[in-house]
Write a structure and sequence with these properties.
Helices cover about 30% and strands about 15% of the residues. Residues about 1-20 have low confidence and may be disordered. By secondary structure, it is of the alpha/beta class. This is Alkaline phosphodiesterase I.
Length: about 300
C-alpha cells in the first residue's frame, strides 16, 4: 500500500525523481557572429570576462565545417551537425541535404521546440541582426522573433530590443544574435584594431543585457551563455584553420560552477543545444548527437 501511494503521488507530474530538476528558470544566450577565440586575450571585454571568472568556460569549442554562419547557427540550435540536420552552407535557408528527421513543424528538432513541447506556456524568444537566423530557429516554436533594423545605422537597436523584452516578458529561453564582429572582420579584417574596438562595444551591450536581467528581478535564476558561430582569419572564414574554427563558450549563473576552465574537454558547436537541454531537464531527440557539458553544473 505504501508503494502504491508513492506511485500515485509521482505519477501526475511524471517528475519526482524520474525527471530531473531544472538548473535555472531562465537562459539568455548571446551569440557574437565571427568571434574567434584567438582574440580573447587581447579583447577589452570586462563584462564577458567577469562572466567567465564567475562561471565556466572553454576557448576550444569547435565549429562544424564549413566554418561559416547558417550551418553553425543551425548546429548550435539543433544539437547535430550538417550531415544530420542538412544545413550545409553559409546562407542556408532550407536544408541542402534532407534532414534526418522532421518535427511537427517540418524542420529538424531545435532546442526551442524541445522547450516548447515540455513547457507550453514558456516565453521563448530570438532576436537577430542577420536575417539568416530565422531559418534555423523553428519560428513556430517561439513567442517572439524579430530582426533588428540595419545595425550599421542603428547599432544599439538589437540591445534595446533585448533589454525591453527581458524586462517586459522575463523569457524562459532567449537567444540574442549579433552580426558583429563578423561584419568588421569582413571589412577591416580579423585581428585588427577595428575588430577589437567592435568587441569592446559589444561587451558594453552584453553588460546592458545582464543589467536588464537584474532590473527584471530574474538574474539570480538565470544562466547566461556567451558564444559564437565561428571565428575568422584575414577578411574571411569558412576554412579549416583554428582561427576560424575555435570559438569561446562561456556559461555563468544559477547552478554553474565558478572559475572553471574546461579546455581539456572536447566541445563542439552542437553541444550547446544539449547543454541547454540539461539546464531545462529536457530529453534530447535520438537524432541529436550533442553532448551536454555536465561538468559545468554544481
Amino acid at each position: 500500500m505504501l508503494l502504491a501511494a508513492i506511485s500515485f503521488l509521482c505519477y501526475p507530474s511524471i517528475s519526482c525523481d524520474a525527471k530531473g530538476k531544472v538548473k535555472a528558470k531562465h537562459v539568455i544566450l548571446i551569440g557574437l557572429d565571427g568571434w574567434g577565440s584567438y582574440s580573447f586575450s587581447q579583447a577589452d571585454m570586462p563584462n564577458v570576462k567577469k562572466l567567465m571568472n564567475e562561471g565556466a568556460y572553454t576557448l576550444k569549442k569547435r565549429s562544424v565545417l564549413p566554418s561559416s554562419s547558417a550551418v553553425n547557427w543551425a548546429s548550435m540550435f539543433m544539437g547535430a551537425g550538417p550531415e544530420i540536420h542538412g544545413y550545409t552552407e553559409w546562407g542556408s535557408k532550407t536544408p541542402e541535404l534532407p534532414s534526418r528527421v522532421l518535427n511537427q513543424h517540418g524542420i529538424f528538432p531545435t532546442i526551442f521546440q524541445l522547450l516548447r513541447d515540455d513547457q507550453p506556456k514558456a516565453e521563448i524568444g530570438c532576436i537577430y541582426e542577420w536575417g539568416g537566423i530565422k531559418y534555423v530557429i523553428d519560428t513556430l516554436s517561439v513567442n517572439y522573433h524579430e530582426q533588428a533594423p540595419d545595425y550599421q545605422k542603428f547599432p544599439k537597436a538589437l540591445t534595446e530590443m533585448a533589454t525591453t523584452y527581458i524586462k517586459e516578458k522575463q523569457p524562459t529561453l532567449f537567444a540574442i544574435c549579433y552580426d558583429n564582429p563578423d561584419h568588421v572582420g569582413h571589412g577591416a579584417g580579423h585581428d585588427t584594431p577595428e575588430y577589437y574596438t567592435k568587441l569592446k562595444e559589444l561587451d558594453v551591450y552584453i553588460g546592458q543585457i545582464i543589467q536588464a536581467a537584474k532590473d527584471a528581478g530574474m538574474e539570480k535564476e538565470t544562466i547566461f551563455i556567451v558564444t559564437a558561430d565561428h571565428g575568422g582569419i584575414k577578411k574571411g572564414h569558412g576554412g579549416k584553420t583554428m582561427q576560424e574554427m575555435e570559438t569561446p563558450f562561456i556559461i555563468s549563473g544559477k547552478n554553474i560552477k565558478s572559475g572553471i576552465c574546461f579546455d581539456d574537454i572536447s566541445m563542439m558547436q552542437y553541444d550547446i543545444a544539449s547543454t541547454i537541454a540539461t539546464i531545462f531537464s529536457l530529453d534530447q531527440p535520438q537524432a541529436w548527437i550533442g553532448r551536454s557539458m555536465k561538468s559545468v553544473f554544481k
